[in-house]
Amino acid sequence: RKYLRWLFTNYGNEVDTAESGAEGLRRWQEGEYDMVLIDLFLPDVDGLSLVKEIRSKDQRTCLVMLTGHGDL
After folding, report:
1. What is the DSSP string of 10-70?
2. pLDDT (tens digit, 9 = 90+) per residue, 9-56?
3. What is the torsion angle, in degrees rounded to the nearest 10, for the CA atoms of residue 64, residue 67, residue 68 and residue 72?
4. Fewest Cβ atoms closer than 10 Å to its Cβ: which of 8, 34, 39, 44?
5. Mean predicted confidence (pLDDT) in 59-69
6. The pTM is what?
7. Displacement of CA 69 from its chain's centroid (Å)
8. Measured CA distances, 70 to 11, 40, 46 (Å)
């Protein structure tokens, strides 16, 4: 999360971060985002559930699933 924030802000993007699925969902509901990066393994919910929740209400925002688990 910290690295991606650094990377995107260095290219001039505005970036919000969240430490959990619930916080991320709240931020998404309160704001307007062009893209949402979602980790597959969140501390409170799996990322796929979060994708389904957002997609059920928003077809425009780009959703990108990623994870730091697994092999290269």
Report:
1. HTT------SSHHHHHHHHHHS--SEEEEESB-SSSBHHHHHHHHHHH-SSSEEEEE-S-S
2. 999 999 999 999 999 999 999 999 999 999 999 999 999 999 999 999
3. -90
4. 34
5. 90
6. 0.85
7. 16
8. 28, 11, 16
Measured from the Cβ of residue 24, the count of other Cβ atoms closer than 10 Å reads: 23
Evaluate whether 25 touches 50 at the Cβ level (below 8 Å): yes
Side chain identity at residue 63, one-letter code? L
Whose structure tokens read 């209400």? 57
Rounded to an integer, what distance in angstroms lies between the CA atom of residue 62 and that of residue 72?
24
CB 64 within 8 A of CB 39: no
What tokens appear for 16 in the block?
Answer: 């919000």
Phi-psi region of 59 (alpha: psi -120 to 50; beta: other; left: phi over 0): alpha
